[in-house]
Each structure stands twice: as structure tokens, then as C-alpha cells.
Write the C-alpha cells for this entry.
Amino acid sequence: MASNKDKHPRTAGSQEFWRQLWKIISPSHKQIKFLLVLIVVFRLIQLATPYILKLIIDKLSHFNPEQVIPLLLLIALLFLSEQSASLVSYFKDRKTFRILVEAEYYLPLRVQEKLVNLSLDYHEKENTGNKITKIERGIFRIVELLANMAFEVVPTLIQLAVTLVALAVLDWRIGLSFAFFSPLFIVITYKVNRELYPIRKNRFKQHEESSGKMGQSIININTVKSFSQEEREAKEYGGIKERVRNWEMSEWFKLLNWNLGRNLIIDLGRVTVLLLSAYLVWQGQVSIGSLVFAVTLSEKSYFSLYRLSRFYDKMEEGAEAVNRFVDIINEEPSIKNPEDGYKPKKIRGEIEFKGVDFSYEGLRNKDKFKALRQVNLQIDPSSVTALVGPSGGGKTTIAKIIYRHYDPQKGGIFLDGIDLRNYDLYALRRSIAIVPQEVEIFNLDVKQNIAYSKPDASWDEVREAARVANAEEFINNLPHGYKTLVGERGMKLSGGQRQRIGIARAVLANPSILIFDEATSNLDSYSEKLIQSSMEKIGQDRTMIIIAHRLSTIQKADKIIVVEEGGVVEQGSHQELARNGGGLYRKLLDLQKTGNVD
Ligand SMILES: Nc1ncnc2c1ncn2[C@@H]1O[C@H](COP(=O)(O)OP(=O)(O)OP(=O)(O)O)[C@@H](O)[C@H]1O
Ligand SMILES: [Mg+2]
């Protein structure tokens, strides 16, 4: 895919770039078309001024008293045309600002919606700092690009076309000189930027990397400090930034070198028009007025051309940032919600894995490590099932796959006999709640954190959920009770407190299937017991899956499934498995009882 992109770089001079950009600013299409009309009208009116000036000069060069009235009329006309240009310009600018401000409004909304809807695998491969940089720079650049287009590029292009026609009508030789030099200039500008494309692309990549690096060191600040790695973080960040600086420097110097050539072309063009006009006046083929007209128009145009090239450089500079933004918008969630997916009223909660193979790497690396291989298992409705086994065995993966965070590459998972892929994704996820190994906490108050799963929950419901999770006591001891802000990622809470908020949140969701992934691992045995007994009560008519390392907590489970290296190695009740002398469960059990390894 990458090589394909490099073959057709999406520079500001490529069709693909504009096609993609046009697509993401779809809400502005109508306004932009209208703006174009305004710009054309504006430029045409603007052309009238130098033309009227030419008429005035021509009249003055053969001045006689009878021509005072027409002269005055011409001057009045000049004033009128300037004023109408200013009026049209006013409306044009209003329209432009409307488009810009609206883009600044809807682009962040679009990308935010996109990001939260993308599947987990996307978020796992892109780090937060990178994503935020991409978005911020992207939006900034798109708005800048639109502004440049509206204020500079399009008006100048129209001006060039109009100038060319006007000069050609005046005298074909002058027109021809203009038609020769200005495209030459444009071609060179295009070539320069094509040459700079890979350098820019690299600079952007490094820039994102530096933001990612900065984000990582701040997110993991605790670890950085505990191991006194501040200096190393600064050094690594500095290293990336240094590369950015070098790339950027070489980019600008290259551009400046080319500018010498571009200036030469413009000056040649201007001199040619002057020489030609002077010659034609000398030969008596054009009037002084026409000379002034030709020189004014071409000077203006060459000057704009130069400015245009500067804007083009800038657009190319921004193009890569725009591309990166566009790529996010175009990213498709890997987990697709089927159209007309099945939305059951009630889920019984029977889960079956049939020959499930799954690798985080996706299908591309088939031979690579598989997180799950040939998993077959059956979880009965309204039962308690425990998943146990060595760390890294695949227990969390099984939980995530039931949630449909990922789809298996082979085999299928069936809920109440229907493949998960046939369910409406949101209906499916509403019927399942998970207390993850690492509970994610928002920087909100305790109540809002619990009620995240059910924003309209009443106070009573929230308190009840907190009670089930054995969280009530500690919450009441917080400085502001349920209204206490818990800090980013819940930093102001202990690990066990975060877990209990996670449990309360899941309980409040009132799902048909409840999954606990090491949900009580940070709790003391007493709190754990309390939670277990209240869970037994609420677990009456729902399917519960409990992932646990402490085997004492799952002995009452209806079924225990032992997972090792991505496969199911044993299953049965505690008694059955404990009896199997050679089994892994028995081994783990003995180990936990005695602490001896063998
Ligand atoms: N997002 C991911 N991307 C790539 N590989 C992953 C990802 N998550 C887990 N893995 C890998 O998949 C394997 C199974 O991981 P999983 O988290 O399911 O183990 P686990 O049984 O839950 O372990 P633990 O008891 O330590 O929580 C591990 O080898 C792990 O390295
Ligand atoms: Mg796990």
C-alpha cells in the first residue's frame, strides 16, 4: 500500500490530493461554488479599472476642450467600477470566512466521531500523541489551505487567465510573451515541490514521532521519575527534534536555491513586455494608453504569479499534513457493523467458540504467533465460567473477542447459536459488560465514572451498583463523596478502588453477560469475599465469565476452562480438574497451596 502511495504522491499538484480534500469538505461544496462565481465577477470588474485608465490616458494624449465631459464621465466610471469591486469583494470575503469558520467547526467533529468509532486494533497501532498531532496540524492546514485558495490562489489564477486574454487582444506579441513566461514559472514551481515531497513527508513523520515520544514520557511520568530517566527522555526527544530541524533546514535551502531561478524568469517576462510595448509605441502600432495598460496588467500578474508560487510552496508544505488527516477520515473500522444486524430483545447468554484461530497480526503474518489456536469452548447460559491459566495464555483475548473488539481469522463465535458477526454491533455490546484488567477512568467525578455505562442512571441505581461492588464505603470517605474528581486515568484512586469503580460501572450496565478480567486482583481477600457474595446474588440470571489467577476465588464456578498458549487444555468443574493429577489445573492448584514449583 505504501509503495502505491509513493508512486502517486498526493502533493498539492496531484489530482488525488484535491479529490480527497474535496470529499472531506463536503458540507462546504455549495458555498464554495458560489464563492467561485463571486471571485470571477470580482476579477472581471477589477479588470475594468486599468482599461478605463487607458481610455483616459488616450484622451489626454490628444486633448481638446470638447472632450472634458467624456473625460469626466470616464473618471466617474472609474470610481464606480472601483466601488462595485469593493462591494463584491465584501460579499466574497464574508462567504470565505463563513466557509473557513464552518470547516473549523465540522472537521474536528468528523474526526472525533471517526476516532471513537475505529476499532481497537487501530488505536493499538497508533499512539495518542501521534493521533492528536495529526488531527491538529491537519485541521490547521486544511483551513489555511482553503483560506489561501479563496484569498490568493483562485483569484490569481483567474487574473492570469484574464490578463492573458486582455494582452492577446491588445497585441498578440505581448500576449505570446506572457503565455511563454508564466507557464514556465508554474512548471518550475511544480517541479521544485515535487522534489521536496519526500523530504517533507519524512519531516512530518519525524514530527509526529516526537509528539508521540513527548506524550509517552508524560503518560508514563511515574516510571520515568522512579528510574531517574528524565535525562534520557530529554535526550531521545532532542534526537528526534534534531532530525526534524535538519530535514526542515535542507528543505528551505533547496527552496531558496530555486527561488533565484524563479525570480529570473519573472524579471525576464517583465522586461520583455516593456521592450515589446516600447517597440510597438515607437512603431506607432499602439498608443501610450495601451502601453500603460499592458505594463500595468503584466506587472500585476507577474507579481501575483510570484506570490502564487509562494502560496503553492506553502500549500505543498501543508499537503502532507492534510493527507495524514484525510487518512484518518478514510480509515475504516476493521470491525464492521452488519447492515440490518440482529438485535435480540433478550439474550440468553450461551456462548460457543468453534475452531477459533486468532492472531493480533492479522492474516498477513499467518505463520506468526497466534494468540488463539483452535479454541473450542462452550459457556452455558446463566452459568458461572472461569478462565484460568498462565499469564499470556490468551484469557483476555478470549474476553475481547466475545466483545467483538476483534474478529477471529478462522472459526466463529456464536452467541445463542448466532455468529457474533451477524449481530448488530451496538446491540451486541450493550448486552455484554466487561470489567477489564486495567479499568479506564475518566477525569470526572466518581458518580459520572460509574454512570458512564448508563448516563441517565438515577442516584439510587448508582449507589446500588457501588454497593454491589463494595465501593460504597471508600467512596463515602472521599473528600467530596460521589462528587470527588478522580484525576486523569483515576490517578487519585488506589488500584483496588479503580477496580471497584469498574465493577460498579459494569453492574450498572445490567448486561446479560458479565465478564470479569482479573477484576478483583488488586483487592484484599476480605473485600474480595464481600464482592463475591454480592455478585452471587446479581449473577442469578446472567452469564458470568471470571478470569482469575487466584484459584480460590473460582472454585464455585460451574465450569473452569484452563487456557494455555492460546488453546484450551482442560475443562470441567473444580472437583473434576483437581482430581486430574497430571493436569495443569492441579499443578497450579498445588503451587498456590504450597508455593512449591513442581
Ligand atoms: N493488542 C495486542 N497486540 C498484539 N499482541 C497482543 C495484544 N494483546 C495481547 N497480545 C498477545 O496475545 C497473547 C495473549 O494475551 P492475553 O492478554 O490474552 O493473555 P492473558 O491470558 O490475558 O494473560 P494475563 O493473565 O497476563 O492477563 C500474549 O502473548 C500477548 O502478548
Ligand atoms: Mg489478561
